[in-house]
Amino acid sequence: MDDAIIAETCAAVGVQFGFVRNISDPVQSAALPVKMQGNWGSTIHDAYGFYTSYNGALTAWAMLAGKA
User: Fold this and answer.
1) pLDDT the model gives residue 9
2) What angle do CA 63, 64, 66 make, to 5 degrees?
């Protein structure tokens, strides 16, 4: 996804990098119909959207704070 270009650029110039994935983007089975895949992602986000964003922000902060 869009993270790949950031990783490629950082690696090219020797900058350390990391990514935090949000659980509202669950791994999908390609065997499922496309509509069902989209509905599952929406369901996860609707149920846990606040918490996934909060946990992602907290994890990113912890990663940066750990480097200080």
Assistant:
1) 94
2) 65
**pTM of whole model > 0.85?**
no
Domain ranges of the chain: 22-68
SS3 letters across 2-52: CHHHHHHHHHHHCCCCCCCCCCCCCCCCCCCCHHHHHHHHHHHHHHHHHHH
Given this model, what pLDDT does residue 24 score? 60
> Is residue 52 within 8 Å of residue 26, measured between CB atoms?
no
* C-alpha–C-alpha distance, residues 44 and 23, integer Å: 8
> Cα–Cα distance between 64 and 55 in angstroms, integer?
14
Tokens 């350390």 found at: 16
Helix (H, G, I), strand (E, B) or coil at 60: helix
